[in-house]
Amino acid sequence: MKKKYGTIHVLVYNAAVLKDEQPTSPVSLVSNYQVDVAGALHSAQQVIPDQVSQKEGTILFTEGGFTLQPTSAFAALSIGKAVLRTLALTLAEELKPKGVFVGTVTIAGTVASGTYIAPELIAEKYWELYEKREEHEIVFS
């Protein structure tokens, strides 16, 4: 792939298992963890070496409202997204001196046109993170 398309300059990781399961089970917790955290880290590790060698790159993670306001109805998702937030912020600290920007966008609400969580407003925030590289975390709530 790299030969055909070149180095990846921007990675946006936006994955989740949306399953209402109460109470959570170890199997559910591990399953969500694989998507929310392990998948995010694995994806990031695919682009980090090239981004570090070029001293340039951006990695953005998407989280949901359960990151900051967990709920027992979606306990595994809540736990996974909270860990993803920690992963994103620790990667930001580690990679910033190496020229790689890591940020996270938390969407705590329903995405809908004409609202404060409209798709175009979210897109603007992703772009702002990419362009300015100042804040590492933006929360829509």
What's the short story on this structure?
This protein is α/β, with parallel strands linked by helices.
Descriptive notes:
With 141 residues, this protein is of the alpha/beta class. 48% of the residues lie in helices and 17% in strands. It has helices at 2-5, 26-54, 75-95, 119-132, and strands at residues 10-13, 57-64, 100-107, 137-140. It has a four-stranded parallel β-sheet with strand order 1-2-3-4, sandwiched between helices. The longest helix is centred in the first third of the chain and has 29 residues, at 26-54. 24% of the residues are buried.
The tally of structural domains comes to 1
What's the arrangement of strands in the largest beta sheet? 1-2-3-4
Beta strand count: 4
Q: Roughly how many Å apart are the termini?
A: 38 Å
Structural category = alpha/beta
Unreliable spans are none
Mean pLDDT: 92
By CATH, the architecture is named 3-Layer(aba) Sandwich
Order of helices and strands: HEHEHEHE
CATH domain class name: Alpha Beta
Q: Describe the largest sheet.
A: 4 strands, parallel
Based on CA atoms alone, the radius of gyration comes out at: 16 Å
General form: globular
The fraction of residues assigned to DSSP E strands is 15-25%
Remind me, CATH topology? Rossmann fold
Give the CATH superfamily: NAD(P)-binding Rossmann-like Domain
Structural descriptors:
single chain; 141 residues; alpha/beta; Rossmann fold; four-stranded parallel β-sheet; 4 helices; 48% helix
Helix and strand arrangement:
Elements: H1 2-5, E1 10-13, H2 26-54, E2 57-64, H3 75-95, E3 100-107, H4 119-132, E4 137-140
Parallel strand pairs: 1-2, 2-3, 3-4
